[in-house]
Specification:
With 458 residues, the protein is an alpha/beta fold. The protein has 17 helices and 6 strands. The chain has a 6-stranded parallel sheet. Helix 16 links the parallel strand 4 and strand 5. Bound molecules: NADP nicotinamide-adenine-dinucleotide phosphate. NADP nicotinamide-adenine-dinucleotide phosphate binds next to helix 8, helix 12 and strand 5.
Length: 458
């Protein structure tokens, strides 16, 4: 039996690796999802067949409780709430790792060798800090608690002291050996507290990056659990989870031109500058959707740039309807996808897929940028920072260095947004005052609907 279990574990590990590979491309992402699910199902079945398992009653109770929380979460939470859903999943996964580690300590703590105790303590530390950190991230994203960074003087010192004290206690426990339930309980409490302190000073808009970092911690914790339980699949799955979480966080920070430390300690997102249209005598041109619809009569190539405002307005379906109408008029339509458009990686891809926009119309930033000079109209739907030319031109701007969509190079730019307000970064966008730009003020869904009706009646 053990040989069969090990064989199934190898198959699961291969499926997990394939899953990550396939998920990295839109075309194969559904396959990736299936491969991951199949890998996990095989891993669970193989583990349940292990001879060490003597009774299934508690396992069945656990499965029923887990499924009754997970199923409604997957079915009822909307696509826009995926970051919150991910945060909750991490919280539960990390709690499981923390509980398994604690149980091992209380059952076999006195028999564990020094390296085993080190691994156990690190697993517990990472598991419990990820649990509270992820719960707090969920609360911020769901706006159950204030999304702004909660800052107080000396916060970094307090957080680092709590972390250092936990490490000190771990070192003491490992060197002393034997059973120390009180000290162990204190390590658990400090880990829970550290998770809260870690996430409290970070703004709601940075939560997707934080969740990705917490994902890496949860993966590492599971990997350590694998060493402890001598389960090779857990080691592999945890390492894959940990490294992919870390790579994703690095990519997100790069695409935002932010450093890791800036996200974790920066307190970004507190004060947002509101753009002033009268500033320096700059002129803003705006039209009604009906007036703007005439511009499409002469257009041959249109690029749509979706951003956070499209998600907020849930305008993806009307964007798809507009695409169909334009294509029926022999206008070529493409979508320009920026890696950090919206508030989570792949945010725009998910929403546009939900609206059945074919994936071959979604063009990544590097490929679409050379096409802007020959584009007649760029229709920016609730995007802002990802189009801001200050990222290319203004070394003093916090956005400087962030790769952007070169929307300013198109022949005509239409911006759909409700006001002159700034986006996530809180920076004014010079493109609003460009002679090539026309603002269409209003909620994205409403403006697009009016635009659609007007184009249809022209
Ligand atoms: P953005 O810069 O935040 O701009 C979104 C714009 O949408 C706002 O200026 C807002 O202007 C408009 N808007 C909001 N609700 C709207 C509605 N109902 N109808 C029409 N417009 C609406 O968004 P972005 O251009 O997508 O850029 C993403 C930003 O988020 C970047 O700075 C990125 O670094 C950051 N970020 C991304 C991720 C990620 O993983 N994707 C993670 C963390 C941070 P009005 O208020 O005037 O309408």
């Amino acid at each position: 039996m053990e040989n069969i279990i090990q064989f199934v574990y190898i198959a699961s590990a291969a499926l997990f690796i394939l899953s990550l590979k396939w998920m990295s491309e839109i075309k194969t992402s559904r396959w990736g999802n299936w491969a991951g699910t199949a890998g996990m199902a095989l891993a669970i079945v193989a583990t349940l067949l292990k001879p060490e398992i003597h009774g299934y009653l508690w396992i069945a109770i656990g499965i029923v409780i887990g499924a009754s929380i997970g199923t409604p979460m997957a079915m009822l939470m909307p696509m826009t709430a995926v970051p919150q859903r991910t945060a909750l999943s991490h919280a539960f996964g990390a709690l499981a790792a923390g509980i398994v580690g604690s149980t091992e300590y209380f059952l076999h703590g006195t028999n564990l060798s020094m390296p085993q105790l080190i691994v156990l303590c690190i697993e517990v530390l990472l598991g419990f800090l990820t649990f509270t950190g992820s719960l707090l991230a969920f609360g911020k994203l769901q706006e159950i608690i204030p999304t702004r960074p909660i800052l107080y003087p000396g916060r970094n010192l307090v957080s680092l002291s709590v972390f250092a004290f936990s490490l000190f206690l771990i070192a003491y426990l490992v060197i002393k050996g034997g059973s120390h339930p009180f000290l162990f309980g204190l390590i658990v409490c400090l880990s829970l507290l550290f998770g809260i302190l870690l996430v409290l000073p970070i703004g709601g808009a940075d939560m997707p990056t934080v969740i990705s970092i917490l994902n890496a911690y949860a993966g590492l914790s599971s990997s350590f659990m694998g060493f402890l339980l001598n389960n090779k699949l857990l080691i592999i799955a945890g390492a894959l989870d940990g490294s992919s979480g870390l790579i994703l966080s690095i990519q997100m920070c790069k695409a935002m031109n932010r450093s890791f430390t800036n996200v974790l300690f920066g307190g970004v997102g507190q004060v947002l500058e509101v753009a002033d249209p009268s500033r320096d005598g700059k002129i803003v041109k705006s039209l009604s959707p009906k007036e703007a619809s005439i511009l499409f009569e002469a257009a041959k190539k249109v690029v749509i740039v979706p951003g956070y405002g499209m998600a907020a307005a849930q305008a993806q379906h009307v964007v798809k309807e507009l695409t169909d109408v334009l294509e029926n008029r022999n206008i070529e339509v493409k979508f320009a996808i920026h890696p950090v458009a919206g508030r989570m990686p792949g945010h725009m891809n998910v929403l546009l897929a939900e609206a059945d926009v074919p994936y071959d119309k979604l063009v990544e930033m590097e490929e679409i940028n050379p096409l802007f000079p020959e584009t007649d109209i760029v229709l920016v739907v609730g995007a802002n920072d990802i189009t801001n030319p200050a990222a290319r031109k203004n070394p003093g701007s916090p956005l400087y260095g962030m790769p952007i969509l070169d929307v300013d190079k198109a022949k005509q730019i239409l911006f759909i947004k409700r006001s002159m307000s700034t986006g996530f970064a809180g920076i004014d966008n010079d493109l609003f005052y460009s002679p090539k730009t026309i603002m269409l003020f209003g909620d994205a869904k409403k403006v697009l609907n009016e635009l659609l009706i007007s184009i249809n009646s022209n």
